[in-house]
Amino acid sequence: MRTMHVLISGAGIAGPALAWWLARNGIAQVTIIEKAQSILPHGHNVDIGGSARTVIKKMGLRDKVLELNTTEKGTQFIDPKGRPYAAFPVQQGSAASLTSEWEIMRGDLAKLLSEEAKKCPGVEFLFGTTISSVLSNDSTSVKVLLSNGETRSYDLLVAADGQWSKVRKQCFPPEAVTVVDKDMYVGYWTIPRLPSDNEWWNIYHGLGSKMISTRPDPHGTIRAMMSQMPLSPAQKRAWQEASKADRQSQQDLLRKEFGAAGWQADRLLEEMDAAPDFYFQAVQQIKMAKWSEGRVVCLGDTAYAPTPLTGMGTSLALLGAYVLAGELGKLPPNGESQHPAVALDAYEKVFRPFVEEVQVIPSWIPGIAHPETAWKRWVFGVVMGVISWLASWRWLVSRFGKDDDAEDFVLPVYLEPEVGAGEK
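== FAD-binding domain-containing protein ==
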């Protein structure tokens, strides 16, 4: 009887997590292809919350994830002179801060998951490789032409190559994908650390719907971010065009818009050219009418990017991988032409309601975090100051606050691998 063969496109978070579950449970032999030559250390802070923490514990990776903590002590809002006016220190197990003890750099998590997947029997990584063409997707197999010239056939192709997935574009019609624009544009990059830098996520609001932040990492550098919500049709066109343009055009626009923004804007802009990981994006959600087509299925941001505004992208990737692997593991081993459609439909039926819940973003977000005028910035500061004061009352937080460790998605029970004592 033949083992299922699965091809995963993308070695970010969702892909290696799925490979681990499939291989450790003996469900499939897995090939992961990744366009980069290695796992890149790029990406900013991500948070693992709710039921996704349970998934990490089931994988025996809790201690390793916590050891890779970003070192961030909490979140604080900064005035134009760099003085904090509202601080939210980390409180273990509580969502009273925008920072948690489960904060980890995206690159560190991707590396950890890939290393763990590589330890599993039957997992193959092909770096510097992409899918040039999906040649067929029928009742017997899905056949692909790889960028290295090879033609390969698999039982299942998993598109986990991000919200602008090229695999999804090949296999799903345009009308199957809805892009929801949140009217916000962001630039991210890494800068050298100075002795004066602290261990907090520092957030500053410039006038004209601008936000600047700096965050520490465990690698001796600082992660910088600039974001803006356009205030006019002309300004929005400029940002839209930049999001599709080259790096130089994107950096030119950031310099134009943030050159007089205040606080540490000059420092961040000066270091931008040398940054190895500069990334610019329009903040947008991905919603799909159906996550699978034949033997092709979408996972993580490819299927349901929720935007950084939710703080749930990484958690959805981990949960989706767990559910998809679990449903594939329930398929009966009935021979060569076993079709995964039943499992793919079950994955969507089980997980879609939670995804749709997560993707609901209140209408006042992200506008509240991008005040246009000095008056609105002052009001925002007063409100955050009051909330910060209330959050300092631990008994109040414990009684009325959200428990960040509480499960937010009821995990189905699937066959689970054995992990060593103390790993859970």
